[in-house]
Amino acid sequence: MTEVLFFIEVVVAGLLAGTMYSLVALGFVLIYKASSTFNFAQGAMVFFAVLAFVGFMELGLSFPVAFVVTVLLMVLVGLCTERLVLNPLMNQSEDTLLMATIGLGFVLEGLAQAAWGVEVRRLDLGIGDFPIEWIIDVFGLFVSALDLTAGIVAAVLIIGLALLFKYTRMGLGLRAVADDPGAASSIGIPLKNIMLLVWSAAGVVALVAGMMWGARAGVQFALVDLALKALPVLIIGGFSSIPGAIVGGLIIGATEKVLEVYLGPFFGGAIEGWAPYVLAIFFLLYRPEGLFGEKIIRRV
Amino acid sequence: MEQKVSNNNIIMGYTRSDLTNFLIAMILSFVAIPLVVQTDYWYSSILIPWLCLALAAIGQQIVMGYAGQLALGAAGFMAAGAFACFNLILRVPDIPFFVALGLSGLVAAAFGILFGLPSLRVRGIYLMVATLASQFFIVWMIDKFGWFKNYDTSGIITAQDIVILGKPFTSPLEMYLVILVVVTVLTVLAVNMARGSTGRNWMAVRDMDIAAESMGISLLKTKLQAFAISAFYCGVAGALFAFTYLKSLEPVAFDIKLSFKILFMVILGGLGTISGAFIGAAFILLFPVLLNSVGNNVFHGAIDATIISSIEQVVFGALIIIFMIYEPLGMAKLWGNIKQRFSKNK
C-alpha cells in the first residue's frame, strides 16, 4: 500500500511540476498560433521577466507594483520585438524566423544579465516548497504547496486566456489572423496590434512561469535550460494547441519523475536531463503533429 | 562572382583563381604563419581553437547549410569524438594518432545516423528538439558511465600527448601543424562533396525535399548521409579540440552553449558556404577577445567581466537578427559583395 501511495506521490509531484513546463509552453503556443513563429526566445523571456521582477523588488517596489512594472516592461519587449524583428521578417520562411528568435533569446539573456547581474537570487512568494499538512492528514500524500499553487495559477491563466480569445473582439481578430493573416488584414484587422497583444500575453505568461520556477530553483541562468524542456512538451502536445501545451507538460512532468525515481538509480541518476527529449522523439516518430496539433500537410 | 572562364582555365572543375587562392592559403598557413608568428599565445588561444571550431562549423554547415536540416547538437557529437579518441588511444596499444582520429570520427558518425533518424519524419524546430536529445544524451552518457572516463573520479582527465610516428607533437606550433593537415584534408573533401553530386542532392533536399524526392533523390540516403558526415566532422573536431586546445577531457566542455556557438558561426558566417564556416568561427572566437581587450585597455577594467560577456551575448543575438533581415547569407556573402564591388573584371 505504501508503495502505491509513493507511486501516486511521485506522479502527483510530476504532474504539478509539469504544469510549470506547461506555463512556459503556453507562451510558445500563443505566439505560434497567431503568427506561425516558433518563438525560441520564450525561455529567455521567462528569465528576463523574472529577473526584472526581482530587480524591481530589490529597488524597493512592493510586490504588486513590481508586478505591474514588469508586465509593462514585457509589453515594451513585445512591442520592440514586433517592430524590430518580426515586421522586417514578415513572409520569411519558418526556419528564418526561428533563427531570428534564437538571436532574440540571446539578446534578452544578455540584456537581463547586464542589467541585473548573474548571481542567483532568491524569490520569496510567501508560498513554501513544503508539503501541505491537511493533504497529508486526509489523503496521506505529500504534495508541495508551491506545486499546487503553480497548478492553480496555470489553470486560472489558461481559463482566462481561453475566455479572452473566445469572447473579446481582440480574441476574434486573433483567431482570424491565426487562420489566414492575409485575409484578416485585408478586412481591416490590425495585424500589428494583434501581434503586440500576443507578444504581451506571452510576456505575462513568461513572467508567471518565471516566478514559479524562480521560487523553486532560484532566479538564475539555469532557468533558460529548464525552459528548453518546454520544447518536448510542445512536440507531445502540438505547437498550435493550448490544451496540448497543458497535457504535454503533464505527460513530460509525470514521465520524467517516474523514470527518474524508478529507472534513474540503475543509470546513476540525472536522466531527467534527456528523458523528455527521447520521449519527444518517440512521439515524433509516431505522431509528428502532436496529440492535439493540426495535421501537417505540405505540398510541392 | 560570375567570371568568364574559358576551358583552358579550368583544371579539374576549378577555375584558376580558385586554385591560386588555395595555393596562397596553403603557403600562408603552412609556411608564413609558422615563420612569422612566434608567440605561443597566438597558436594556443587563437589559431588552434579557430581551426578546431571551424572544422566543427563545417560539420554543422553540411547538415544545416547544405542539407537544410536544422540540427542543434554539434557539441554532443564533438564530445562523442573526443572521448572515442581518448579511449582508443588508451585501450588500443600503438594505435597511430590519425587512425584513432578517423575512428573517433566514425563513432561520432554512428551517433549522427542514430540521431539523424528523426529527420526522415520531421523538420524545422521539431528536428531541432530531436537533435537536442543527442546533445543531452551523449554528454549524460559519458558523464554517468565511468568506463568512458576510465573510472576517473576527479572529473578532469588529462588528454594524452599526440604521438605521430614516434615523435611527440606537444608544442603549440607542432599541434597547430597537425590540426592544419587534418583541417586542410577535410576542407578539400568538404568542398568537393559540396560541389559534386552529393552536395547537389543535399541542396535539392534543402530547397524542397518533396520535389527532390520526386526527382529520384532518396531522402533516406541523402539526409542520413548528411547527418553522418556532419557528425564525422564534428567528432574529429571534438577530438582535436580536446587534445590540443582543452588538453583535458570533461563532458561539461561540450555543453549546449558550445552547440549554440557553432550554430551561430554557421548562421553569421553564411549558410551553405564552406568559407562561411571559417569566417563565422573566426568572428565568434575573436569578437570576445576584442571586447575583452577593449574592456581592459580602453576602460581599464572599469567594466565588470560579467557585463562584457553579457554585451557579447547581446551583440551575437542582435547580429543574428540583423543578418536574418538584411543578409541571410551571412558574412561570406557580404565579403563576396565587397569583392565584387572592387573587382574590375565584372
Characteristics of this structure?
A: 300 residues; mainly alpha; 75% helix; 0% strand; B: 346 residues; two-stranded antiparallel ribbon; two-stranded antiparallel sheet; 13 helices; 6 strands; globular
Structure description:
The complex is a heterodimer of chains A (300) and B (346). With 300 residues, chain A is mainly α. Chain A has one domain (2-221). Chain A is built from 14 helices and no strands. In chain A, helix 2 (42-58) crosses helix 9 (191-217) and helix 6 (145-167) packs across helix 7. Chain A is globular, with a radius of gyration of 19 Å. Chain B has 346 residues and is mainly alpha-helical. Chain B has a domain at 37-253. Chain B is 72% helix and 4% strand. Chain B contains 13 helices and six strands. In chain B, the strands form three sheets. A two-stranded antiparallel sheet of chain B has the order 1-2. In chain B, strands 3-6 form a two-stranded antiparallel ribbon. In chain B, a hairpin with a 2-residue loop joins strand 4 (162-164) and strand 5 (167-169). Chains A and B meet through helix 4, helix 11 and helix 14 of A and helix 5, helix 8, helix 10 and helix 12 of B.
